[in-house]
Write a structure and sequence with these properties.
With about 250 residues, the protein is an alpha/beta fold. Strands 4-3-2-8-9-10 form a 6-stranded parallel sheet, with helices on both faces. Helix 5 runs parallel beside helix 8. The longest helix has 19 residues. The protein is globular, with a radius of gyration of 19 Å. The mean pLDDT is about 95. The chain binds adenosine-5-diphosphoribose. The site of adenosine-5-diphosphoribose has 24 residues, from helix 1.
Length: about 250
């Protein structure tokens, strides 16, 4: 068995990792949809009050993601390569993004804290299905024709509980390297993940600019994820090759 002196790695990504693939971030310029901030449409009350507006928002985002020009960028690919190198037991990727670009770049077991745009859920039965077409209030239910209007995007809305938080914290508490990529550190609980890492954990923030959580990190690399992530992964590959030893 090969025993590695390499610490378990946790990577947290945000909208910035997909920006160079052409998907808009939430809080950068142009992070609005028809004049709405995401907080105004991505919440249960908005869905109860005007479900079609919320469906339109997600139909627009689903179409944007399925545009053939939107492809994984070098940051997504480098993370998949790192996971391949160190193995899934050493590498936990948790993303706030609801796109599937990490998976399309080859990453496995990606944890989508805020849900997935290409899935739909029944709020009555909890069933989840892959979904690539528009969704509307009157869309027929895939398994229970008597249910009407219970289908919703499989997205965690503001005020709802992010998915599998216990599993995330278990990985955070055991990691020796925590890397936050392209997230503004505005939305909790993800913005607080860095503080859940153990003493001695190496914390690196990759972003275009400083964020409110920058002071929590030991290292700050500034620039586009498409450049920074491949460079960091190359460094880690060298470290990995020099650290692994048979035993
Ligand atoms: N490379 C690196 N970082 C980038 C790039 C890039 N090319 N482009 C933008 N960024 C950075 C921005 O500087 C910003 O800090 O990515 C971050 C994007 O921040 P947000 O738009 O707030 O996205 P995110 O942090 O993922 O938002 C968290 O808020 O709206 C909710 O549920 C939604 O998951 C989302 C959550």
């Amino acid at each position: 068995m090969t025993k590695h002196k390499f610490p378990p790695i946790v990577v947290l990504t945000g909208a910035g990792v997909s920006a160079e693939s052409g998907l808009p971030t939430f809080r950068g310029t142009g992070g609005l949809w028809q004049g709405y901030r995401v907080e105004e449409v991505a919440n249960p009350a908005a869905f109860r009050r005007h479900p079609e507006l919320v469906h339109d928002f997600y139909n627009w985002r689903r179409k944007a993601l399925l545009d053939p020009r939107v492809q994984p960028n070098p940051a997504h690919r480098a993370l998949a390569e790192l996971q391949q190198l160190v193995g899934p037991e050493h590498f936990y990727l948790v993303t706030q993004n609801v796109d599937d670009l990490h998976e399309r770049a080859g990453a496995k077991q990606v944890h989508h804290l805020h849900g997935e745009l290409l899935k739909v859920r029944c709020s009555e039965t909890g069933e989840v299905w892959p979904w690539v077409t528009d969704l509307h209030v009157e869309t027929p239910h895939p398994s229970r024709p008597e249910l009407r209007g219970t289908l919703r995007p499989h997205i965690v809305w503001f005020g709802e509980q992010p998915l599998k938080l216990t599993e995330v914290y278990r990985h955070l508490q055991q990691c020796g390297l925590f890397i936050a990529i392209g997230t503004s550190g505005n939305v909790y609980p993800a913005a607080g993940f860095v503080q859940a890492t153990p003493p001695g954990c190496r914390r690196i923030e990759l972003n275009l600019e400083d964020t409110p959580t920058s002071p929590e990190f030991h290292e700050h690399r500034r620039g586009p994820a498409g450049d920074l992530v491949p460079a960091l992964v190359r460094e880690l590959q060298v470290l990995w090759d020099s650290s692994s030893s048979e035993c």
